[in-house]
Amino acid sequence: MTRWTGLAGLLLATLAQASPELGKLHYITEENSPYNYRDGSGMATGFAVELLQRVWQQTATPPQPIDVMPWARGYSQLSKRSDVVLFSAVRTRARDPLFKWACPIDHANIVLIGLTHRHINLDRLEDAKHYIIAAGRADVGEQLLIRNGFQADRMMTSNRFNHAIKMLTSGRADLLSTNKNTFYQRIGEQGLAPDQFRVQWTLSADPFCYAFSLAVSDHLVAEFQQGLEQVLASPTYPALRRRYLPE
């Protein structure tokens, strides 16, 4: 076998393994450090972004553009379009039949957080309905509140997570419904001390995933899931996780 014959065979094998269909999807994320956010040059980065890039490598998918936009807008596109992958999306029971899923990126603890000095004590979730609660617009934190019967006039929502935190710290809201990991990462970036805040209630513990438009084929989602599982089992994955999600 000549050198060129060998190279041609390798190229054909690579093309056979390639997934052009995964390259035709529209990938969308939001500002949600440490999972997904813009770096100093405006490019998408973060734990979920690097995980996605490794899935592309595993499936021989060429690198794709990633649009960073407010969560409510991305969620709307996922619901209306036939070719969207939105991440990092919490896979709740209510959302499960609405989309197709590849999991997990991580596990999300969605909690109600308050200021420690306020001494808010919740013996049951119903007690929280006496307070004003901030949340991200169309975020799982808001959706879980609605699902549990919280009224709109007791909620304050924002497209910007930092604004939602400010609602809490300024006293405009009594509690914040959010992902616990994301919250403590963000307050660290703002120089706020963790002991200023206290988790008052856990609303859910569900996986963070890549959510696909319902029209995306089961075969394509399964191909992505297989690539994701191979990345999660790779020897380089633990170091990636420690870099973004230290224990």
TrEMBL record:
InterPro entries with a match to the protein in the record: Solute-binding_3/MltF_N (IPR001638)
Signal sequence annotation: 1-18
Keyword DNA repair: no
Keywords: Signal
Every Solute-binding protein family 3/N-terminal domain range: 30-246
PANTHER family in UniProt: PERIPLASMIC SUBSTRATE BINDING PROTEIN FAMILY 3 (PTHR38834), SOLUTE-BINDING PROTEIN FAMILY 3_N-TERMINAL DOMAIN-CONTAINING PROTEIN (PTHR38834:SF3)
Protein name: Transporter substrate-binding domain-containing protein
